Amino acid sequence: MTRRGSYAKGIAKREEILATALEVVDRAGFRGASVRELADAVGLSQAGLLHYFDSKEELFTAILRKRDEVDTSRTDPGADMVETLLDVVRHNAETPGLVQLFASTSVAATSDVGHPAHDWFVDRYANVLAHLAGAVRARQDAGEIDPAVDADRLARVLVAVSDGMQVQWMLDPEVDMAASIELVWRLALAAVGSGAGATGASGTA
Amino acid sequence: MTRRGSYAKGIAKREEILATALEVVDRAGFRGASVRELADAVGLSQAGLLHYFDSKEELFTAILRKRDEVDTSRTDPGADMVETLLDVVRHNAETPGLVQLFASTSVAATSDVGHPAHDWFVDRYANVLAHLAGAVRARQDAGEIDPAVDADRLARVLVAVSDGMQVQWMLDPEVDMAASIELVWRLALAAVGSGAGATGASGTA
DNA sequence: GTCTATAATTTGATAGAC
DNA sequence: GTCTATCAAATTATAGAC
Q: CA B190 to CA A176: how far, in whole Å?
């Protein structure tokens, strides 16, 4: 019954800690918080908290993992992926601390191959991109998006807008992150049959 | 002749240091580098380097400022702002260290009002957004972009794509950051007269 | 399983000689 | 103006008592 990487570590309690940590980061924000701060917040000593996680990075990554889990369960599995993305982004606007944690961790982990969360981010982006590209292709098949548009590229744009708007939103919480994604999507739908996909290169990267 | 904030600090030498630091970060990368590391690289002791900058954050911000300066001088002042953005982003793909430094500093500074670089980022984004929105409006006046599209919002999208693609590019340097911006721009131009601007809210945020 | 205590570093910043 | 030396603080991680 033990899970890979967390053998003998009291999984139930671990989950409980993560649930609490999620709320704490959400409410109190994340300002490069230390393990000790988070430990205090969840009602454990620093050593007590690290008993459940191998390192600081593993701890914070676990929180992000948990966040994804919660988002997934809150979200309609049958919904269009773009709608799901919009839903998650709208929800993000109510969890500043998690946006902060995600933004800083994503930069740290993606820019360092040795970071404990690097591989997780690789998988996460690959997964989201694949789903979004699928949604784009579905619209292309339905004749609603110009088939000349590179679906993978448009998927990357949607993810980039989601990530990039977080910075602008942190600078000014009045900014509507979801509306930016909607604008891109609307433009893609409106540009059907206008040759917007025309480009020199045909590669996807 | 002394400048605000750098009185009695040997401006010429400071500039020389920044020029070197720019190259160093560019070449050697930036992995949350310490002042000491950078000091070694520019041929000064840690104390010697901090003689020219009030703090670590001020130092790294100065590097980013310098980068902008160099970009501005490398760039055609009369060019369309979107073309300029593309030019800068294409150039970024050749300076991984600076992208890394920018990404992590922007997250740290925007998420913390007390960060020494916070105000600079506020100004920087306001400036870039204003220029891009102007470029959008020019196209709208020329009938090349649907006037119903919110120019400020499209400007935010362009900036968000630029920022967001940096993360995807750090995960995979094969990714073409500029091509994503081009796609958005092409979609905007292609969607003219198709009602893509239609939306419930009319606010810009 | 949780805590106390502490190890082992590291870092930014300052004081003061030269 | 630059360096050496050092400070003071903070952090993660671990060892070991209970």
A: 24
